[in-house]
Amino acid sequence: MRVSIVGTGYVGLVSGVCLAHVGHDVVCVDLDEAKVERINAGQSPIHEDGLPELLAGVVGTRFRATTDLADAVRDTEVTILAVGTPFGEDRIDLGQIEEAARQVGKVVAELDRYHVVAVKSTVVPGTTEDVVGPALEAASGRRVGAEIGLAMNPEFLREGVAVQDFLEPDRIVLGGVDERTLDTMAALYAVFDDTPVLRVDPRTAEMIKYTANALLATLISFSNEVGNLSGELGVDVVDVLEGVHLDRRFSPVVDGTRVRPVMLTYLAAGCGFGGSCFPKDVKALVAHGRSTDASMDLLEAVLAVNARQPLQLLERLEHHVAPAGSRVAVLGAAFKPGTDDVRESPTLTIVPELVARGAEVVVHDPIATGPAQAVLGTDGVAYTTELATALDGADAVLLVTSWPEYRDVPELLAARDVPVVDGRRVLPPDAVGRYDGIGYPRL
């Protein structure tokens, strides 16, 4: 199948390269000429495990990038919209997706054949049919459901393992306006013949995506609230949640073996969720619910808990050292390991607070110091990719991202009386002389 994808961010580029890898002819469109040149040279502009190797295997044969949207759409059967849908001041910003639909519609007006446009960007329920569809029809002069197919095909990609998630999907959701659209989209994913395919209308597909992310975000905030209370009560939340995890409804026993689903990693206390999806999507769903007068009290609380959670690390820190005049090593800038994405990372809250309280801060991350510096600047903050350098001379350590490298912290701090505040509970409490962390009993 010949496919064009508008957007080369995490979703667009990973989807495009993976679709080419499984046999389709794919062209990705982006306005950034330098980015396009880099992709066509086989260099991935984003850090994603396995993506450089897959890109090298398909670029120049079944995959290319271009700045020419008209040329890309004209030569393809399906166009996937994977542009940004940021959260504005009080609602999701659909400007990019609407403009992309208009531009695609202008090209579709020239075609003498059926063309399917699929929305892969995360959009609030109703967007595909009420915003994208009318924009396509107005620009093309064609009718959706007759000359144009229209679909919503949400992605379920986790940053850091997005390639694996795409190539080993747990489900494929296809929301189409009619059977012809759904059949075309089903053909696109036919190679994944062992994967459940859910065929629904676009509005349902949009709601599935938001519901999935909102549920995982809720598990995280629930765990964090329980963790905060556990610590105050002198109870270790790690033990508490282990007792919950062992419920067979969460981790069933199959053929005598305990199966621990990945979902349980979200039922763990930490310093808050970040990234490009959970914060934005929950905020968008809450705002959309308000617009329909639906009560969104639970998800509003999820966001409130998450906004406060990074400050729990600072509160814990102040039980050991006063930030003013102290050198504090902040370990982790990316919102999660395996990515260089710092969007909504707890570090972006923690570091300015430390600086405001008079601390000298050094931020360590294996790959995300550049993006972090671009956001946080250098006023009172240093950056390093060397863990030993970050720990050298530190009066306290805040562990914010669960990079596997941080398991070396105890060895690097051997014989030094430095408090370690573990925001992800990745270190054994007895591994360092002075341990503290989210949900750990108060000392």
From TrEMBL:
Keyword hit for NAD = yes
Q: Which UniProt keywords apply?
A: NAD, Oxidoreductase
Which terms does the record give in the GO molecular function aspect? NAD binding; UDP-glucose 6-dehydrogenase activity
GO biological process annotation, one example: UDP-glucuronate biosynthetic process
Its Enzyme Commission number(s) read: 1.1.1.22
- Gene3D superfamilies assigned: Cytochrome c1, transmembrane anchor, C-terminal, NAD(P)-binding Rossmann-like Domain
Catalytic residue positions: 277 (nucleophile)
Q: Record's SUPFAM superfamilies?
A: 6-phosphogluconate dehydrogenase C-terminal domain-like, NAD(P)-binding Rossmann-fold domains, UDP-glucose/GDP-mannose dehydrogenase C-terminal domain
The UniProt record gives the binding positions of NAD(+) as 30, 35, 85, 122, 159, 280, 343
InterPro entries under this entry? 6-PGluconate_DH-like_C_sf, NAD(P)-bd_dom_sf, UDP-Glc/GDP-Man, UDP-Glc/GDP-Man_DH_C, UDP-Glc/GDP-Man_DH_C_sf, UDP-Glc/GDP-Man_DH_dimer, UDP-Glc/GDP-Man_DH_N, UDPglc_DH_bac
Out of the domains of life, which is the source? Answer: Bacteria
Biological or metabolic pathway of the protein: Nucleotide-sugar biosynthesis; UDP-alpha-D-glucuronate biosynthesis; UDP-alpha-D-glucuronate from UDP-alpha-D-glucose: step 1/1
- Enzyme class of the recorded protein, top EC level: oxidoreductase
Known catalytic reactions = UDP-alpha-D-glucose + 2 NAD(+) + H2O = UDP-alpha-D-glucuronate + 2 NADH + 3 H(+)
Query: Which positions fall inside the UDP-glucose/GDP-mannose dehydrogenase C-terminal domain?
Result: 329-429
What family name appears in the similarity comment? Belongs to the UDP-glucose/GDP-mannose dehydrogenase family.
UniProt-recorded name of the protein: UDP-glucose 6-dehydrogenase
